[in-house]
Amino acid sequence: MSTLLELSGVSVSFDGFKAINNLSFQIGEPEMRAIIGPNGAGKTTFMDIITGKTRPDEGRVLWGEKGVSLLSMSESQIAQAGIGRKFQKPTVFEAQTVRENLAMALKNKRGPFDVLFYRKSAEGAARIDAIAEEIGLTSDLARPAGELSHGQKQWLEIGMLLAQDPRLLLVDEPAAGMTPSEREHTTDLLKRAAQTRAVVVVEHDMEFVRRLDCKVTVLHEGSVLAEGRLDHVTQNKDVIDVYLGR
Ligand code: ADP
To answer: Structural domains in the chain?
Structure first.
């Protein structure tokens, strides 16, 4: 497993308040990582820094085997480099079918020029079918996305991100509002996605984090408080104190 993304000594202040404070973080490829931490710990700001939405005041954010700085890249260049982000609320095109939604997201690895052709080609259709199977929506391909359940919309959006073949997928609270069986499906889906890429999941639901069965990074006051397996970090005295509000 080689390092895909490395943050070191990163700090961000908002009006003098340090939302991220000398944070260092590494993720490999492939790898699954869960980020936990109380409200205000800096989880959203951390993701915003990676995607270029928020620029740090200090520190380095390096990407890929060549260690290219993401700080000199625009948000769209960062997305093009292979970083996909899923926000908590699903944003799919409700009036379009599941197939159309996936087709719109499909990225042509051969270059941008024949992307419209690729989306309609047999190769593109086969890729859409494969993603639909991956996310469990094969029998829903012809349905308008607006008819899907909340859980299905979340999977469709994950599928739309997978269609862009990111090397790093950032996912914000994927299990929120899901039924237990939907959660199980989401766990399986993310675990499969993490077999070939880096996946970072920000999640409050500890049972969901347990099922992800991966290394966990605990954020607190903008820094990494603890890192390791869930059983290990939940026994850490500092982590217990933070979660019990001591
Ligand atoms: P989390 O996602 O873990 O709840 P956030 O990254 O949203 O934490 O926020 C970390 C801290 O930074 C919080 O105290 C929050 O109020 C503050 N913060 C985040 N964004 C801004 C902003 N744009 N302006 C001022 N303060 C902010």
So the answer is: 2-244 (3.40.50.300)
Residue linked to tokens 């939604």:
101
pLDDT for res 120: 74
Buried b (16+ CB within 10 A) or exposed e, 213-242: ebbbbbbbebbbbbbeebeebbeeeebeeb
In this prediction the pTM is 0.94
For ligand 1, whether the C-beta of 139 sits within 6 Å is: no
130 DSSP assignment: H
Give the ipTM: 0.97
Alpha helical stretches, state H, 74-137:
75-81, 98-105, 115-120, 122-135
Q: Measured in angstroms, how far is the CA atom of residue 147 from the centroid of ligand 1?
A: 34
Tokens of 203: 């999640």
Question: CB of 42 closer than 6 A to ligand 1?
Answer: yes
